[in-house]
# Entry
Amino acid sequence: MEPINKVKSVIAPLNRTNVDTDQIISKEFLKRIERTGFGRYLFYHWRFDAEGKEKKDFVLNDERYKEASILVAHENFGCGSSREHAPWSILDYGFKVVIAPSFADIFYNNCMKNGLLPIRLAVSEVEQLLEKGQEAAYSVEVNLEEQTVITEDGDTYAFSIDPYYKKMLLNGWDEIELTFQYEDKIRAYEEKLAHIV
# Structure
C-alpha cells in the first residue's frame, strides 16, 4: 500500500445519502481475481447510460473533478454488502480519501485495511464542503498526521482516527506488512519454543 499523510486536491462532491456497495461497484463487475482494474467500474450505472456513454450530469463526468483524489459524500456511505471491491474500485479510480458524516462499519474497516482513508466529519462540515464543491472546483488539504481537513477558505476541521489504523496508513502497511515489523520477535519466540519441545 502507498503511505498517506498529506493529500491536497479538488474534492468530488457526491451529494447522496446511503450510497451502498452495489452502487459503488455493481455485482456484474466482481469477476476479476486481481485487486486492480476496478476503477473503470466505479459508480458505473450512475456514470454511464445503457449504451456506455457518459452521463453529463454525474459528478465524476464533470471536467472540474476529473483529477480529484478526495471524494465527499453524505451519511451512511458504503452501506450494503461487505465486499472489499468497493474500496478497491474507489482507490483504483484515483481517490485516496473519502469524507462523509458516517460510514457503514464494514466498509470503513475495509477502507483502512486497503489504504483508503475514510474521514468522518460533522454533517454541517460535510454539507459546507458539498455546497462549495458543487459551486466550483474547490480544494482541501487532508493532513493525516495532524488529523485535519483544511479548506481553501482557511477553515480547519478536525477528525479522529484509531491510532492503530493511523500508523498503518502513514507507513503504507497492510496487516501482513504490520506483522513483518515484529519478525525479529516472532523468530525469537519460535527459537525459544523449539528448545522447549
About this structure: The beta strands are 6-14, 70-73, 97-100, 117-120, 139-143, 148-151, 156-158. The mean pLDDT is 92. The longest helix spans residues 183-196.
